[in-house]
Description:
This protein has four helices and no strands. It is mostly helical. Helix 2 (34-46) packs across helix 4 (67-84).
Amino acid sequence: MQLAYNNNEATPMSEMAIVNTFTKLIFGEATYSARELSIIDGFRAVDVDVLRDSHEEMGEYLRNLGVREMIQLVSRLHRHLAQTGGTHSKRRGVERPASANDAPGLERNHPPR
Length: 113
């Protein structure tokens, strides 16, 4: 059985911690702990549909998911966080490159002027 949300930063992220964070997003909470922000960053990493979304937009996205989709998302995010240790060196979706030239590996969609 999964334990309820544990705010101990040293323990692995549980599926319950993910669900609790998603619930806060859905209900539009204004403040998030460092652990919750790490879960949100992981969410951005596993679902490109929310990569650049605000917390409010992420909550709307989650509200529109079906039960099966939500369960699959929680499982995918849980695996991702377990593989990465729940940490991300950069807060993806927050620190954005100014242009495609600044982001390694991104190609231009149009020829240079």
